[in-house]
Amino acid sequence: QVQLVESGGGLAQTGASLRLSCEASGRALSTSVMGWFRQVPGKEREFVAGIMWSGGTTDYTDSVKGRFTISRDNAKNTVYLQMNSLQPEDTAVYYCAGHRYPYWGISRSSDNYAYWGQGTQVTVSS
Question: For the segment 68-119, what is each residue's pLDDT rounded down to a tens digit?
């Protein structure tokens, strides 16, 4: 059984930075795509960023390109999301997710992710 635990969320002012971490336990996800999603009340969960198992390829939704960076440390079974130049529209609950199958490519669909953390709140004040 895989457990994902996010940390690093909180309250930030516009233009500030936060770094989210996601630690996996129970089974190594070093061969799986990892992703970050976010959700606000009343809206569907939105893909934010994904990273290949090797760490060499990443993907970002357009609204965070150039501001957010996803990375991973397979030795620590941890994925990170560095968020810079935060904007009020980045306010959401952020979820870490592990892809359903090892060695598959990055997917923006939450249906392809079988493992989810409990979420961490990020609030950006204007």
Answer: 999 999 899 999 999 999 999 999 999 999 999 888 899 999 999 999 999 9
Burial of 13 (0-12, 13-18, 19+ CB in 10 A): exposed
- Alpha-carbon span 48 to 39, nearest angstrom: 10
Spatial distance between the Cα atoms of 26 and 51, rounded to a whole number of angstroms:
20
CA distance 59 to 15: 22
Contact 71, 10 (CB under 8 A): no
What are the beta bridge partners of residue 71?
80
Are the C-beta atoms of 8 and 64 separated by less than 8 Å? Answer: no
